[in-house]
Amino acid sequence: MMRLHFHEEVDGKRRESLEFFASMPLRVVVTVVSRTHGTTGFAARDSCLAEIVSVLQARSVTRLTIESRQDDRDDQRTIARARAAEPPLLFDHRDGATEPMLWIADAVTWAIDAGGRWLQQADPILESVVELRP
Fold first, then answer.
1. pLDDT of 109-133, one tens digit each?
2. Which residue, of 9, 24, 101, 113, is most buried by count of CB atoms within 10 Å of its CB?
3. What are the residue ranges spanned by the domains of the chain?
4. CA nearest neighbour of 53 among 11, 18, 81, 17
């Protein structure tokens, strides 16, 4: 299986992929942290992940799949701290090259960053962008 990674794709493939994702029955919530002076990438990821856990549990979503990095222990600790006992939320880490559902997150976040027509194409599935402070 070939990975879809928006940063490396040509515009035609980006457009085709966003059109396909927009035809799917899904909604995307994106969390972002503006990295100010002293905010590390780790702190920003932790804040975003904790918010995602909170949003998912509020909606009684039972499963979270996260793109794996070399070491997933920080994510595991963040989820353990953020996750309430109920409703249950299971999570796992997957390789972005082999988990196509992670490509949707990559596509939408890329489109938000690119703005303009790309953001317009992602809009049908984009429910909200939650801006956080670490």
1. 999 999 999 999 999 999 999 999 8
2. 9
3. 38-107
4. 81
